[in-house]
Amino acid sequence: MSGTIRLTAAQAMVRWLSVQMTEEGERFIEGVWAIFGHGNVAGLGEALHGIGAALPTWRGQNEQTMAHAAIAYAKGQGRRRAQAVTSSIGPGATNMVTAAALAHVNRLPVLFIAGDVFANRRPDPVLQQVEDFDDGTVSANDCFRPVVRYFDRITRPEQLLTALPRALRVMTDPANCGPVCLAFCQDVQAEAHDWPEAFFVPRVWRIRRPEPDAAELAEVVALIRAAKAPVIVAGGGVIYSGAEAALGEFASRHDIPVIETQAGKSSLAQAHPLNYGAAGVDGSAAANAQAGKADLILGIGTRLQDFTTGSRTLFPQAKLVSINVQPYDAAKHGGVSLVADARVALEKLGAALGGYRAGGADPAARAEWLAAVDAHCAAPTEGNQLPTDAQVIGAVQRASTPESIAMCAAGTMPGALKLLWQPSQGGYHMEYGYSCMGYEVAGALGLKLARPDREVFCFVGDGSYMMANSELATAVMRRVPFTVILTDNRGYGCINRLQQNCGGAAFNNMYVDSNIETQPQIDFVAHAASMGAHAVKASGIADLEAQIKAARSRDIPTVIVIDTTAAPGPGDGLKAAGHWWDVAVPAVGDTEKLKQAYARYLENAAHQSLVN
Prior knowledge:
Radius of gyration: 25 Å
Family: Belongs to the TPP enzyme family.
Domain Thiamine pyrophosphate enzyme TPP-binding: 411-562
Domain Thiamine pyrophosphate enzyme central: 217-349
Number of domains: 3
Largest sheet: 6 strands, parallel
Low-confidence stretches: none
Number of strands: 22
Shape: globular
Strand order of the largest sheet: 4-3-5-6-8-7
Structural class: alpha/beta
Domain Thiamine pyrophosphate enzyme N-terminal TPP-binding: 60-128
Organism: Paracoccus lutimaris
């Protein structure tokens, strides 16, 4: 094929994206979320309209939240498909920077197509242009550079011939996967170019499975064979590799307990006899006990965030082995690296280990923990008592089915759900790498689009709901059903507890402790209903369960509001639940409470591993 076709740069971009395929024969970029402005409406907007259903366009309400929906879609698809997001220049573009950081931290693919200034500079400064007095090449889109895996500014049409394949290479690379930003100068979008017809031949992008190095594999096999009490830490890489079955088989064959990170939770169903639950700061008594006595930690697909490691105090005496496709993650904390795809690594380790069995699991401790969770999450016994977050989780759990997915992002609920939710395989979706308030409602939309076969429960507090809720209207317009459980504790209950645990006074988190004249009485039911959702206030835990079941008959989102108490915390009263978290406490202060908190801080910090 040697001919050419004359198209604008924007028309060429969307045509090329429409023929980039997965191995299953689907578009890798499913479609484009768009809010148009003067930086993308004339060029990219015309191109998207022209291509129609071959690369569908969806209208969002806010650039950040429609990007959150795209990120949740990619996570729900296990990184096997993604979506693009486009905005105009200026505030539209910078609104997406937070979402780009979220995708970067979580290693999730999304394509940001940000409108940019004029490459020809004739109208400088164009409306919304950010001018740098000392650098004429800078625009607001340079904010994306630290929070994407690949950045390119398109200042000539033919640059797309290299920029677009580079973008897809990053998004489909299991080791380097993450967001991409193509800053697309608005005049260049509309420029015509004679494109090689070969550029638009459909291409299949295969996600590779790196094999382990033979020497690294042999070293890890020897370490496992020598271990008496190994423990597996399952991270998100297990899910992105599609290694859930391999993990279950490996753990069962070798009798090795599995504990979970936020991203790795539900890689094994909670019902699996070797799943000991959440690890670390928001971990279960059973999981942290297993970690505490481990002589070998086998991390699989985890970046070993501080919540997982208890700020490096949870397993300081254990040898660490880290299986990861990304060498940067595999080498953390002085661990022995096994750089490989999780599923391939588990298969090869299993074959090499033969009949090895560890025998360090403690089924009685696991059963005791799960029984304690059931009791902790039981309905209140006093009729006028405000329910706790744990009791709300218990109600949703009892009303759930094996097809239900619990999802959330920030505040109290991520730690509570990690600790208390008992999912089936694949029944958990948490954005806790960036812990971004406002992800929840938009994320539920994206997750349901990715998994239309599953029921989606979106847990969100009143604080996060107030930050970002407008994609609820988008879900209504597109008839995407999910159930929002909105817990109203009248402030930022989670950070209020942390503030006081660190020796501080209750200040500026709960409305009652803020510098306001009147405590707001926000009608969340009326607000959600005004956007078209079915909204109701649950009178209590029993009513919450009934409302959840009723929501299954609707083809629009259901918002169930329930008043809760901000204290106690979700794990308070559960014996030995949780672990220390390093949050710096002021070294000098006047109150006895602060002095005691600082003394506790020094005591715990003394146990931290300093190996990087």
